[in-house]
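User: What would this chain look like folded?
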Amino acid sequence: MPWTPLSSKETLAGFFTENAPHIIFKHSPRCGISAMVLRRFERSNIFKNSNENFWLLHVIENREISNALATDFNVRHESPQVLVIYQGELLHHSAHSEIDANQIETVINGLK
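Assistant: Here's the prediction, encoded as structure tokens.
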């Protein structure tokens, strides 16, 4: 499953109306920890075998979007960080070594 780049604030509007979960991975290409966690996530079953909406947000290039997400969902900006959003509601967020693909899969499966 390839990532869809998240590089437009207008795209965020769909996160509030669509009847599908959105998984956003906030990534800093300058951070070794972020790269390691991203690779680990990309090897996970949910990423390889799911049809969910996976978004990759490069926080350095798109700081305005990252800040908007932090404000809209009342979470602290971190990188790496994963947000799971469904119909405008933040269902899950985690950062750094706490990013767990199995936990995210459990959250997604709870919607079905």
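The mean pLDDT is 92. If you want, I can go into more detail on any region.
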